[in-house]
Every structure is written in structure tokens, then in C-alpha cells.
## 1
Amino acid sequence: MRCLICSLLIFLALGKNLWAAQGLAWVEKTPADTPPVRSGHAMAYDAARNQMVLFGGYNETGRLGDTWVWDGTNWTQKNPKNSPSARDYTAMAYDAAHGQVVLFGGSTQDGTNSETWTWNGTDWTLHSPAKSPSERSDHAMVYDTARNQTVLYGGREFYGPDFDCNDTWVWDGTNWTQKSPAISPPKRCCHALAFDATRSQTVLFGGAHNDWLADTWVWDGTNWMQKTPAISPSKRDYHSMAFDPAGQGQVVLFSGYMPGVDIADTWFWDGMNWAEKIPAPNSYASHSKAMAYDIARGQIVMFGGWQSSVGDTWILQLPSFTISLSLSQQVNIGLGDAISGYSSFIQSESCVRKNLTEGNGAGTWFYGPTIDFVKAGYGPTIDLSGNKTVIEYTARYFQGNGNTNPYADAPIILQLLDSEGRRAGLGISYGAKPNPTYPSWVTCTDDMSSDPTWPNSPGFDLTRVVKIMFVGTDWVGTGNDFVDLKNLKITSYIPLNKKKSFLPLLQKGE
């Protein structure tokens, strides 16, 4: 995966031409529904169902045993037939090999336990493995995508430092197996783990055992190795960590607790060193939060914490660049071919229309409308080489009188053009939608990182894109077909070492 740091947003919508920049920050969300305030809960991203799963925790009413899911906009409480008992300081991880969230242990009203549960999106299932870690709480778990197994390390069997653990276990979907590394981190609890997919290592930081800790270790599937970074977060426990593939390609650490102080700093681990990226985030200091990476929406999600007065949800917003380009008739005239290949402009809806048979004929392909980023003044080129690039647009298909073909058959294929004139295309994104009847609009989304047809042009240079074209056809039949287009948006996360290429554009918007 590429290391990514900033996002490029290109908007074609009503409004003033604008290029703006936003910095790295924690941003609070305001969902209509939210879990009650809590700390000591667990959270994991369920990739099979594109949901963040939250379980348990503790608040003034006592330990909690509720299950919630986050869809990027709102929280929904689930009502499973079976469920783990109320508990806090448990641990969860998503088992990608089996498509299930795994939960182990935690502290209940009867003390710590050694239960293993899995969540399938609807219900919880209690397992009875032949072997299992001892009962514990305050441990940490993470899924190792390189070796397809869930890793568990450390924790506290009972209350008090004499009961802290330093054992390493892996879950294969059926059973737990204890590993026997030559070297292990010292005993601890209240630490954090994250799997660094860039370097195929599990990263451990901090925790507590007699004193607070600030050491960094990595697990390669066989052995632990202590790292000696020149710069490191301060000693702490009850912090949170997650791997961010879309933004930094690095492990992100947030918050924690050290003697008498809640911490509110954000650190990034690049495999060699720690770097503090947000010394004073706009979220408050707190510990015992839960944090995980939302793959579908490309962002880290964080919930709750010890100092919460309400149940709060935060996302880590990456630095972004924004272009807004008006589609008004005046701008079309002023920019000439910046938005070309269309037959007419519909002022009342601020959209462009293309007659598909204009200059071609029924049954043939056409190119247009075409947006030329250079002629629009945002060049010389656009860099879309980030690991995650999403193209969204709003369109509709209009059939002339007498056309005998079904409306839903209408295909629109996107093509990009680089500075050397090479084309690369994505699959049909409009014709694959359940298209409504004209004049309703359809918003289409195409994620280039998950499109199997992208890219398909040898030598195409994603770092030097100059145009985007909407390619379609007039199906054989009587009468003309038309395509209307508005509201194009391209989001691409750009590698850190390419950030300088955007400086001229930043200056343009000042």
C-alpha cells in the first residue's frame, strides 16, 4: 500500500471557484442516535458488513452489555438473541479469515473471565475452545492480516500488578494457541496493540506494571522485538491505537493516562520512530476510549472515554485540498473548452446535456461531457495516485420519443486522460444502478481502489491526470438519447512525498 497523507477534493457544483486546504484534526460527529456515555468498552470494524461494532464498557449505572453498530452516519443498537454478559475492559478484533468479530475476556460482576465470543452481524456465539488464555481483563487484541490470525497479548488476571501477564496467544477461528517467543515484552496491562499492514508487524506500546510504561515492541508472528525510537510518546496506559492505511500508512496512537493526568496527544508510528502530529487536538483529554479504522469510509473512528459527559463520536480528518468549479453558463462561456463535449446547458438545473447521436449515430459510443482541469485553471495536472480514489457524480439518462430500449440499460463509463493523451477507464457505474425514471437524478460512486477494471491502459500516469470524460452510447433504436451531468466530485488521498506538487494550487486560492 502507498503511504498517503492528504486528500484532493475536486467539486463541480454551483458556487464560487475555490481552492482551499484543511489540516489534520479530530472532528466530532453529531449522529441522531448514539450509545450511552461509557469507558472501558471495545470496538472493532466488521469488514464483512461495513460496520463498526461496539460492545460493553462502564458508566455510572455499572457495567454494560449492549451491542451497537456505526454505519458512518449513525449508531444503531442491536438486539441479539445471545450476548456476552455485561463487562468492561474486554478486547475485540475482526477475524477477516472467518468474517467475524472476536471478543475475549473482560471484567464482569463475577470478576475476570476467559470467554471467547464471536459476532456475525446478527448474533453472538459463545465458543468452547480446547485451549484458551487464562481469565483476564485489560488485555489487547488485534488481527494479523499477514498471517490470518488474531493476536492477544498481556492483561491482568486479577486486580493488582502481581497478576499482570506477558503471554502471547493466537486465535485461528476454532482454538487458541499459546506462542513461545524467545523474547517477550515485560508483564503489563492496559496497553494497546495495532497491526501495521505496511510492515506486516503487530505494534505494542505502553501500559502499566508497577509503573507506567513507554516502550515500543513489534511482533512478527514468531518473536517480539523491542524498538528504540529516538522520539516516543510519554509513558501511559489506557490509550488507543489503530492502523490508518488511507491517510498515513502508519499506526495512530491517541490519548491515555499517566500519573494524575489525562493525555490528549496524537502520535504516528512509521516503523522506526514516533512523531507527534496533533499536539493540541480539538478533542478533550481522556482515557479508556475505543478506536478502530473504518475501511469503507477510509477514516479512524473513536468513541467515548473516561471524561465523557455524553456519548461522543470522533473521526480523524486528514489534510484535504478542495477545488470548487462553477457549472454556471457564464463560467462555461468564460472557460471555453474547460467543460466541453456537451450539446446544451440547462440553466434551471445547472447541468450540461449531451445528445448521444450528435455526430455519431445510433449504437455508437461518444465522448463527452469532458472536464479539462488544465483549461479550468487547476493544472498543470492532477495527482490521483493515492491508494484510495473515489469518483462521485450525479447524472441522468434521457430517452427521446420512440426509443424502444429500457432506461435502466443506459451505460456511462468514466475515462481519465493523462498529459500524454493515454486513457484509462473504469467499469460501468451508471447502468449498474437501479436507475429511476427521468427526470430523477442518480448519484453514482466508483472507488478506483476496488474497481477490478482500473486501470486498464499501459503506461497511464495517475500522477498527471488532465481530463475526465463521460463515455456512453445511444442504444440502437429510434429517437435520440441524452445524458445530463452535474455535481462531479473526486476524492484522492495523496502520498506525503507528493504534497509539494500542490503548492501552486494552494497559492492560487489565497
## 2
Amino acid sequence: MIGIITPTVRSLNLLFSTITLATITKEHFSSILVCLTHVTGILTLCYTINWWFPNLSYEIWATFLLALMVGEWIFSSRETMWRNSA
């Protein structure tokens, strides 16, 4: 509950939760854990950016989220191409 008061603690809590989930997912692979870790990581990134730059316009957020989407799409495509070539 202390994370509600200070943004620094909230941001660090999200970061450590993401790291913990990634560690658990690596040991006990499950598609649900992978999705939960991915969503937590993206939320951590977005929250931290919003904390550092609180006055970003909707256009900048849209540009950032589209760039994130394209980056994930490229990463996903490379993974599929690598798997098909092996």
C-alpha cells in the first residue's frame, strides 16, 4: 500500500514484480505466465514514462505505443523466420 503514496516506490515495485515474474516464468514455463509477464513489463514501461514525463500529449503516447507495437511485431517476425529456417 505504500506504493500508492510515492511514484518512485510504485515504479520500483512494478519493476521488481516484472523481474520476479520473468524469473518464475523461466523456471516454470506457462503461456499464462508469459502473457502476464509481458503485460506487466509493458505496464511498467508505460508507467515509468508517464512518471518521468507527465505532460505528454496523446499524439506522443500514440506514437510511442505504435513504435512499441511495431517493435514487438518485428521481434515476433524475426523469431518466426528464425524458427522456420532451422
